[in-house]
Amino acid sequence: MRPDQTTVYNTEKVDPDAKARSERGHNVPSFEEFGRKLDREIERLRELAEKKISPATRLKTAQSLRRMSEKLAKLAADIEAKVEPKADSR
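RESULT FIELD:
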């Protein structure tokens, strides 16, 4: 990507209010809002797995989720390692 280009993300399918927020200049959701959406999506995926996916596919999915979880844990550790503790403000 060239430096003069901006990154464009298609979030309208996931978040129908994304376009309106972007037009208002509020295109960055809060971390709390992101967490709530992630929780809802995880619940939706859980229901989908229980109702529409065969047992063999569920096992493969579980293995993939464990691999992703390990990678996310490593990413979290890397982020924590880069954060310097704040000086005591007392």
